[in-house]
Amino acid sequence: MAVTLPPGLPREALRKDAARNGLTRSRAAGRILRTATAAALAVWFVLPLVPLGLWVFADRWSYPAPLPQHWGLENVDSALSRGAATGFAGSLALGLAVSALATPLGVLAARSLAFHPSRWSALFSALLFAPLALPAFVTVFGLNVLLVRLQVPSSAGVVLVLTAYALPYTTYVMRLAFGAHDLGFEEEACTLGATRGQVFLRVQLPLIAPALARAAFLAFLVGWSDYLVTVLIGGGSLVTVPLLVASAAAGTGNDGIVAVLSLIALAPPLALLLFAGMTGRRRPGARP
């Protein structure tokens, strides 16, 4: 059967309209798929936290009851009496110290590898990433003996070793950032009379700020979540949340206390992740 086109409507316009409608449907389907995937991932990550949240306020929860029989804050009080506040402060200080040391060192190492390659670059990269390849237990034992003989304070030793473990992550993130970095912006600023400090503050720092935040976040996680280095090198002088969680989980009948300490351990990383995600969104009209 022949199809008669309306007068004044060329075939090319029909083709463009059909293509546009197909592209619109494709984008809508992709948006729905992304939304469904994000929702499924959110449920996957949030669902295990539900029992922890219930245990925090469960003074009594016996099998086979689906919900706690008695509600209260006894678990919170018990966790605080076990040193939860001290462990939180210790973990926070350790994470911030590792992040403050490993992030600038990673920036310097990554910039050197990106813009000043040499015949020793491969060896330098291998040394930087060696902490990830070597068995952690054996390495920490050897470093512990070395630090004791050098009479390094245990807390300082923990920070130094964790900084070495965080350095591969910060270097890798910043190496990717510098790989896409255009030195032409810095050279043009110097040509216009900017000093090195002005170039760093007004040109280089804004360009690498997102990668810098990611590197600092990863370094903070290394210090915040560590157990092995803190236990072996710290020797109990530094109390952190992972140590308290492991101590409570080693006993029986401490489910509520473990839940409280676990949520304390999850709170700062999740808060930082949400903050980074909210501040990292592009503003409307911002240039890519």
TrEMBL record:
Q: Tell me where the signal peptide lies.
A: none
Q: Which PROSITE patterns does this UniProt record tie to the protein? A: ABC_TM1
Keywords of this protein's UniProt record, alphabetized? Cell inner membrane, Cell membrane, Membrane, Transmembrane, Transmembrane helix, Transport
Localization per record: Cell inner membrane; Cell membrane
Q: Does the keyword Cell membrane apply?
A: yes
Provide the ABC transmembrane type-1 domain boundaries. 88-276
Presence of keyword S-adenosyl-L-methionine: no
What's the protein's topology in the membrane?
Multi-pass membrane protein
**Pfam name, any one:** BPD_transp_1
SUPFAM superfamilies per the UniProt record, alphabetical:
MetI-like (SSF161098)
What domain of life is recorded for the organism? Bacteria
**Chain segments annotated as transmembrane:** 35-58, 88-110, 122-143, 155-178, 199-221, 227-250, 257-278
Concerning its family, UniProt says: Belongs to the binding-protein-dependent transport system permease family.
Query: What is the protein named?
Result: Spermidine/putrescine transport system permease protein
